[in-house]
Structures are given as structure tokens and as C-alpha cells.
Amino acid sequence: MNVDSFFLRHLFNKASEVYEFDAQELTEYIFQSPIFEESKKDLIHTGLQAYLAEDYISAIHILVPQAEAAIRTLVELMGGATLRKNRQGGLQLRTFDDLLRDERVEDCFGADSSFYFRMLLTDQRGWNMRNDVCHGISPVGAFNYSTADRIMHVILCLAQVRENNA
User: Fold this and answer.
1) 147-158: b (≥16 Cβ within 10 Å) or e
2) pLDDT per residue as tens digits for the range 121-132
3) Which of 36, 86, 95, 141 is the most buried (most CB within 10 A)?
4) 81 lies in some domain
5) Which residues pair with 22 in a beta bridge?
């Protein structure tokens, strides 16, 4: 994924140059997907503004948990469980990695994209960004354009989800 980062950066720069989009237009596009909750719109908009302003520390800290929330909503909308029993007999949220392994996510995105999301966000063999960011163990050097571009890529992949009214 490190090698491909150059190409992803070039793609985002060229798309920005050609389409001249701003954070508001990106927000409107993303929220056409039912897996992004309307109550999170201002938060995601702020993350997109930070990304476009090259404030990668803020963008990553805001957008990573929103990707997790979108996957959780996807599983729920497709009839899956987002809670599991804990050791005390109560309920707790399923982990992000568990959600990314859910058959509904693979049905929606395919095996390759599901694997990509896991390698990028939750698998220790990959970048493990969600866990490193949310547990506060990422070094400051990890908050760069390459990492931010990957999170934007995930957000834009998730934004392609649409309701099937057939």
C-alpha cells in the first residue's frame, strides 16, 4: 500500500484540479449514501475541510471513527447484528474488525475490498489505522497525506453504497 500511495495522491490532486470540488460538495455526495447518519454530517464535513486544508491530524482523527460508524450502519441496515453478548451476559458493540468480516460487508463490497478495509483499518499485519489512531499509539509521522488519502479513499468507497429499491 505504501507504493500505491503516490498514485492515490496523484489521483486526488488531479480530481481536485479537474472538478474543483470543495468540502460541501464532498459532504453532499457522501450523504447520498444511507450508511452515513445525518446526525454526523457536520462532523464529517469538518473532517473533509481538514483533509482539503491538509490538516491531516484532524482529518484522520475525525474520519476514521466515521468510517467505522458507516460500516456499523451498513451491517444494521442489511439486517445484521451490531451487538454481541459480553462475558457478563450483557451486550456490547461488535468490534470494527468483526464488522468488516461480516458476510454483509463482503456481499456489499466484495472480498477484495473487504480485505483492503481490514488491512488498512484493523489488521495488525496491515496499517491497523483504526486501532493505532483510536488507542493513541500512532506516532505523529503517521498523520500524513498518505494515511489521510487512504482514509478518504475508504470514505469515498463507503459513499458509493446506495439503497436497492428493487
Assistant:
1) bbbbbbbbbeeb
2) 999 999 999 999
3) 36
4) yes
5) none
Residue 43 placed within a domain: yes
Q: What CA–CA distance (Å, rounded) separates 132 from 121?
A: 9
Asked whether residue 127 is domain-assigned, the answer is no
Range of the domain at 153: 5-94+139-158
Which residues 6+ apart lie within 8 Å of 1 measured at CB?
119, 120, 126, 127, 150
Give domain status of residue 110, yes or no: no
**C-beta separation of 115 from 123 below 8 A:** no
Total domain count, the chain:
1
The cell for 75 is 451491517
> Cα–Cα distance between 140 and 33 in angstroms, integer?
32
Maximum distance among all alpha carbons in the chain? 55
Question: What are the tens digits of pLDDT across the range 81-133?
Answer: 999 999 999 999 999 999 999 999 999 999 999 999 999 999 999 999 999 99
Rounded CA separation 45/26 (Å): 8
Contact 14, 158 (CB under 8 A): no
